[in-house]
Amino acid sequence: MVESDVVFTGRIIRLRRDIVRMPDGGVSQRDVIMHPGAVGVVALDESGRVVMVNQYRHPVRRPLWELPAGILDIPGEPLATAAARELAEEAHLTAARWDLLVDVLASPGMTDEAYRVFLARELAVIPPSRRHVGVHEEADMRTRRVDLDEAVADVLSGTITNAMAVIGILAAATARAGGFTSLRAADTPWPDRPTPGAPVS
């Protein structure tokens, strides 16, 4: 690294401009979107249905069917706790069984954004009186349960296009085909997790 500066700070992301020395000795500029990271949940019920949420996404100007998910915006919050919080807030569900499904680097050519997707099972519905009340994009969020095979078909047909949902659904179907023996513990270390505010190496 020859030089590095944060040139923009927004509500969630920051933009860092790096001047990097290349293997041939030359230098080149790389613009990096710094992101706090996120967690998502493939919540699979006893009938083999995955819980999906419908949320408006401003950058693409339309609502998308997605997994319950959210950014890591509470310092020190354990990852599985963050995932359980998002499942409760967005889908009004709790889960007694949690496993690690897949870790993803979202687009490593331009951002350090990484997200971890959990598999949640043994679901229970949160009573209406104890439910989180959503605001902004979450205010009119809808949920539905889709058979996992149907969700896979929706991915392959282009009906489901949210990247986390695509990856999580296909990973869940693959894990199920192997009898869920490939799953890792929910507290498995995550070396790619972004560290907000960390010095640039």
From TrEMBL:
The keyword Kinase does not apply. Keywords: Hydrolase. The keyword Hydrolase applies. InterPro entries: NUDIX_hydrolase-like_dom_sf (IPR015797), NUDIX_hydrolase_dom (IPR000086). Residues 34-168 form the Nudix hydrolase domain. Pfam families: NUDIX. PANTHER family: ADP-RIBOSE PYROPHOSPHATASE (PTHR11839:SF31), UDP/ADP-SUGAR PYROPHOSPHATASE (PTHR11839). This is ADP-ribose pyrophosphatase.
